[in-house]
Amino acid sequence: MRIVIVGAGFAGMHAALSSARLRDIENVSPEQLEIALVAPHPVLVIRPRLYEPKPETLTAPLKEVLDAVNVVYVQGSVEAVDTKARAVDVVNSNGERKSLCYHRLVIATGSRLFRPNIPGLAKHGFSVDNLDDAIALDRHLHKLAAMPASKARDTVVIAGAGFTGIEVATEMPSRLRTIFAKNAKPRVIIVDRSPTLAPDMGEYPRPIIEDALRNLGVETRLNAGVASLDESGVTLSTGERIEAATVIWAAGFRAAPLTTKIPAARDHFDRLLVDKWLHVLSLPDVFASGDAARAACDDVGNYALMSCQHATRMGAFAGNNAAAELLGVPIRRYHQKTYVVCLDLGEAGAIFTRGWDREVEMVGEDAKKIKQEINTVWIYPPKAERAAALASADPERVADM
Predict the structure, then answer these.
(1) Among the four residues 78, 140, 291, 319, which has the most C-beta atoms within 10 Å?
(2) pTM of the predicted model, to two decimals?
(3) DSSP, res 112
């Protein structure tokens, strides 16, 4: 028997560890139940930190962890899924193809930044969506230091006032002063079509976020979108022209494209619709987790967000349930009633909220300490030691705050 897990992000990693954990509990050998993880690289990109400097350092190796729990790593990308034949088509870095059969499949391919067809965006826009993009932005910012000071050089426009846009914007002033000079006066502007900042955060945290932006000197342009970009700046939908050498797109995400190749229902983010146990609807042999799945967290209408907090727990449940079905033990219903947000606000500290109503528990330096612990400890893979790695993947405890 074989479980195939597609993706080495937070959901994929935890799916692999959780399925291996249950296999170990049931005293089943890797020869009896093979667990294979397919990904281009055996590396976890610490995506929530890509707004920080030195993004090339924000990865963690997975091969030793997978080896420790007898998970087979398969190098490549899944380009097609045959749900009738129960097989995936894997293409490796050399362009070689092979078919990999499965008894249970876990789709954990994550999400990608949604880039609309705005004139100049593809050529002149930056992002922190993935490791390569974050490295390209960091190199661009350092190249600016060799240029003479000007309005364009010293101005950064961020399109998007959601979590990512705010963390990029609040980090940028100190980041640019480090690159340019301590006495530099960079101009940072957030642009968003919404009439409010951080529309998903709700009314309680918003005044704190607004104060932080004011204290950092970050400007906002709300009720405005990006109409076009060129090499020297951006034109907004309001007609305003902003001279800027750096425009960072941080507006919206979609599930990675593999979900569109699965013959099943999806939402408007291309997430696969799943049941209480994370089965893809109409495909009982296929599970989806993380940003690839639209999953109910509870019975009162809250659904998992595209966040590593939800991805880790969903991955653990999906991996556990895929193994449980093959081993003939009860599966577990996914639930995630506890939800917290810890939003980095740069030199203004951070804000920590709990619950779907975003009730504020901590702000400033206290919240910043929690954010730093999340970013440097909690979201990293476990040690490559069998017992510790397996213990880390208990689905009832993963991401439980």
Answers:
(1) 319
(2) 0.94
(3) E
Rounded CA separation 241/228 (Å): 10
Q: Report the b/e string of 129-146 with b at 16+ CB within 10 A.
A: bbbebbbebbeebeebee
Distance CA 269, CA 92 (A): 27
Kindly write down the DSSP assignment for every residue of 190-214, as one continuous string: EEESSSSSSTTT-TTTHHHHHHHHH
Give span(s): CATH 3.50.50.60, the chain.
2-112+253-338, 115-197+206-248
Domain 115-197+206-248, CATH class in plain words: alpha beta
Q: What are the residues facing 151 on neighbouring strands?
A: none
Report d(CA 101, CA 87) in Å as an integer.
Answer: 4
Domain 2-112+253-338 sits in CATH at: 3.50.50.60
Q: Residue 60: beta bridge partners? A: 44
Of 92, 112, 83, whose CA–CA distance to 4 is shortest? Answer: 83
Residue 366: which residues within 8 A CB-CB, separation 6 or more?
349, 352
Beta bridge partners of 234: 229, 242
- 287, 317 Cβ separation under 8 angstroms: no
